């Protein structure tokens, strides 16, 4: 088996992660069936690509790609936000927007390698806080994050606003 390496991804190289984004899109659709079918692969990627390109213009943002030999097998996207206005935890905080490992490679340590590389980048930026959103039915992934020191801080809630009381 080829060696695993980790490299930075520039905006001009974003297409490298499209299959890995698609794997995550399929994973999310499978764990939240109540929201119905996801956007098409092409539309979903067009939207996500636009977000990545925007984040990558911001100072301190980075995308890391794990490769086995020449094959992309996982990636992480991090951008920086302002630290909490309430608690003096960190001036700037990293937001892990994506962590995705190719289905064939899951459970083999690639996600751990990427997370360690993310922490290294953040240390170099003097950023001491890292947060992320995870869907509650993504139980194996929640265990993965907990094993890596994450704890639940908030709940990300949603509603269909068109059906809210007093609308319509
Ligand atoms: C979550 C994820 C990034 C972890 O990367 P990984 O390379 O599989 O993880 P590692 O091999 O470093 O660590 C293994 C642990 O990850 C967890 N894990 C989460 N999903 C897993 C999966 N589909 N297969 C195997 N392990 C998984 C397990 O708890 C496992 O621990 P165990 O070996 O004690 O069972 C990866 O499994 C993945 O891409 N999952 C689907 C997409 C996803 O949920 N991304 C995060 C969105 S917030």
- In angstroms, what separates the terminal alpha carbons? 59 Å
Rg, Å, rounded: 17 Å
Oligomer: single chain
Low-confidence stretches at least 5 residues in length (pLDDT < 50)? none
Q: What can be said about the biggest beta sheet?
A: 5 strands, mixed
Kindly state the number of beta strands.
5
- What is the arithmetic mean of pLDDT? 96
Strand order of the largest sheet: 1-2-3-4-5
- Bound small molecules, which ones? coenzyme A
Number of DSSP helical runs: 4
Strand content: 15-25%
Shape: globular
Task: Characterize the structure shown.
With 168 residues, this protein is α+β, with helices and mostly antiparallel strands. It contains 4 helices and 5 strands, in the order βααβββαβα. A 5-stranded mixed β-sheet has the order 1-2-3-4-5. A hairpin with a 2-residue loop joins β2 (62-68) and β3 (71-82). α1 (18-31) packs across α2. 18% of the residues are buried. Coenzyme A binds at residues 24, 27, 99-101, 106-112, 134, 138, 140-141, 143-144. Coenzyme A (COA) is lined by residues 24, 27, 99-101, 106-112, 134, 138, 140-141, 143-144.
């Amino acid at each position: 088996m080829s060696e695993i390496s980790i490299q930075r991804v520039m905006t001009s190289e974003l297409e490298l992660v499209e299959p890995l984004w698609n794997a995550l899109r399929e994973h999310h659709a499978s764990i939240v069936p109540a929201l119905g079918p996801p956007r098409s692969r092409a539309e979903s990627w067009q939207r996500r690509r636009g977000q990545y390109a925007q984040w990558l213009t911001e100072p301190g943002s980075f995308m890391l790609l794990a490769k086995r030999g020449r094959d992309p097998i996982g990636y992480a996207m991090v951008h920086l936000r302002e630290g909490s206005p309430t608690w003096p935890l960190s001036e700037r905080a990293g937001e892990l927007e994506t962590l995705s490992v190719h289905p064939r490679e899951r459970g083999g340590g690639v996600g751990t390698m990427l997370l360690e590389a993310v922490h290294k980048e953040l240390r170099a930026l003097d950023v001491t806080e890292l947060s992320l959103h995870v869907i509650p039915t993504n139980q194996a992934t929640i265990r993965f994050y907990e094993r890596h020191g994450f704890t639940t801080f908030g709940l990300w809630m949603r509603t269909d606003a068109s059906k809210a009381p007093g609308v319509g």
